[in-house]
Amino acid sequence: MLSGLRWTARSTVGYGLKAIFATGLMMAACAHAGALCALDDVFGDGFDVSATLDLTAPGPFAVTSVSGSSMQGSRVTPWVANYPTGAGPAAIVLFAPDPQLPSSYYQGWTAHLASWGYVAVRADPPSSILSRDEPAMALDLRNVITDLLKPGALPVAVDGSRIAISGHGAGGKVAFIAAAADSRIKTVFAFDPLNDPGTSGYTTTQPSIVPQPVGSIALPTGILGEVLDETSGMGVACAPASINYQTIFSAATAAPAAYEWSLAGASYMSFVPDKSTCGFACSLCNTPTLPDSDAYAFMRSSAVAFLQTHLQGTARLCPWLSGTSVPDFISVLESSAP
Length: 338
Hints:
Layout: E1 6-10, E2 18-21, H1 37-43, E3 51-54, E4 63-72, E5 75-84, E6 90-96, H2 107-115, E7 119-123, H3 134-148, E8 158-168, H4 170-181, E9 187-191, E10 221-225, H5 245-251, E11 258-263, H6 292-312, H7 318-322, E12 330-335
Parallel strand pairs: 6-7, 6-8, 8-9, 9-10, 10-11
Antiparallel strand pairs: 1-12, 2-3, 4-5, 5-7, 11-12
Helix pairs in contact: 3-4
């Protein structure tokens, strides 16, 4: 019927990110958490609308952090887990940064997810500007998951059946590699992921993920991206069109629900929430025309809506994914597996 088709939608309202929901909607069961939001546009979701919700604002939980590290042979991956106080068992969201940037630059985003009831973990798999073993980094992330699921690993109970993985740039690529290899991971959510071949072309340590393994990942998938950095800023394009987020979305043919959000005027570095100490590294890409505050607001709202809908299955927040609550500087594509 409608599966396998692709819709294009563009919002027609400004960036208020407030809508009306029935009381108790956040706890209402969703029959098919993997269902495409475009189906709601056709059939309706059946919910009465009567209360306000702002997904850019902090959620109802106080947030506490704890740090740790996971080992894989000689490889050590430090991590920081932000968790909701008084919640549990809580779903896990594991995030990998751009390998040239520390995950601390993304702390605000992970803390925001924790305020909405998630154990949001930012991890730093070892890599360097001269050497990056992406399959090993993916295994590092999977080992972090294993450690987080051990009894008593965290001060809060976790739900091992609800695990999402996320990342930015090449960190997003590593997230897809991990998702393809680990059945514990149930959703993928990436910021401007790059199918980066490195300076020597694709190798065993920096493999291509398009068309495979992305094409075989049968998980709900959300991808934010931009096209400003298809062309060079200071001599090098930060996100060339041939390896950018659009190529990864196009390859996600097995996903039961996939979203591509294109942020007009954003740059690759628009997806780094805290650039206060970034310095030279954050100046290498093109200068965005979209305010960083707008990009960061959508990073927060889209992640909460996506995870609540496709990981938790507790609410269908489709207006924030492809409907009237999507800001008008964003173009949306949706697809679902046949």
